[in-house]
Amino acid sequence: MTFQPRMTSRVEGITLLDDLRWRSWNGIIADVWHVACAAGAGGHYVSRDARLFVVLEREGGRSDVQLSADGRRRRVPRAPHRMSFVPAGMQVWSHVDESVRVRHLDLHFHAPTLSERLGEDLDDERLTTPRLDFLDERLFTLAQLIAEECTAPQPRHDLYGDGLTLALFIDLLRLGRAAPEAAGKGAALSPRQLRRVTEFIEANCARNIRLQELAELTGLSQSYFSHAFKAATGVPPYQWHLKARLRKVQALLAGSDLALTEIASATGFTDQAHLTRSFRRLIGATPAAWRRAQGR
């Protein structure tokens, strides 16, 4: 099962000039659009995943593409390389006063996959705080390289785009390595709280579980819950969840003849490659080798 951006949109006066160009990496999908916008054109968009909108090039028009969170028109000063971070589920309206051609990059972020890749729970506040119409030269440089990779006739190795997109995501959310002492700060979950959370994870391990769901089971804030869970178990919630998934994978490998693609889908991994990477990292062997060792 490959991550696909889940966005609905309604547009008027916007025409696609070139074929959509896109690439998919581990937890991130990049789309490059080249469109013509008539005077007064606009659209309404809502996505189930957080995304970054980056204007790469613009021809004509004296004003920028206007984005708003309430549908009202807002005057946006013309500036190069403008971009906007839109949290998951946030409604956004766009509008242009004058006809203009725009080439832009959309980056869609699958937070559970990125959290797993980074080895830490993502700060929910940063993922849910919108940033409309900001300028950042470093992010724009990375966005340009990602767009070039999407449109290149002969793309480079997947690790090239994978590294670019992950670097942009880290820079965008200003993620840093937490101080070691911060990880264990505060009291641990009580045995009752821990049992309730771990039973919930086991029962729902085949799907993406939001940190908010787990925190609500204990009546704690997400930040406090993360520290309390790690203090009780020695590992962050995402890693406990991943191990629960892998136990389910092992049960299916040992007790069925399902193909790896079917097992990946049944246990919540994005695809077979994602399953194999995670399995080898934690178990120390590939799923196929582990299955052979069980005599199947």
Can you characterise this structure?
- By secondary structure, this protein is α+β, with helices and mostly antiparallel strands.
- It folds into 2 domains: 7-172, Jelly Rolls (Sandwich); 181-293, Orthogonal Bundle (Arc Repressor Mutant, subunit A), CATH 1.10.10.60.
- Helices cover 43% and strands 25% of the residues.
- It has 12 helices and 9 strands.
- The chain has helices at 111-118, 124-128, 137-151, 158-172, 180-183, 191-204, 211-218, 222-233, 237-255, 260-266, 272-283, 287-293, and strands at 7-16, 21-25, 28-47, 50-59, 66-68, 82-86, 91-95, 100-109, 131-135.
- Strands 1, 2, 3, 4, 5, 6, 7, 8 and 9 form a 9-stranded antiparallel beta sheet that branches.
- Helix 9 crosses helix 12.
- The longest helix has 19 residues, at 237-255.
- 32% of the residues are buried.
- Mean pLDDT is 88; it is low at 177-184.
Order of helices and strands: EEEEEEEEHHEHHHHHHHHHH
Q: Which fold name corresponds to the CATH topology of the largest domain?
A: Jelly Rolls
Rg (C-alpha, Å): 22 Å
CATH architecture descriptor name of the largest domain: Sandwich
- Write down how many β-strands occur, each being a DSSP E stretch of 2 or more residues: 9
- Approximately how much beta-strand content do the residues carry? 15-25%
Give the N-to-C terminal Cα separation.
24 Å
How many domains comprise the coordinates? 2
What ranges have pLDDT less than 50 throughout 5 or more consecutive residues?
A: 177-184
Structural class: alpha+beta
Helix fraction by DSSP (H/I, runs of at least 4): 40-55%
- Relevant CATH superfamily of the largest domain: Jelly Rolls
Helix count equals 12
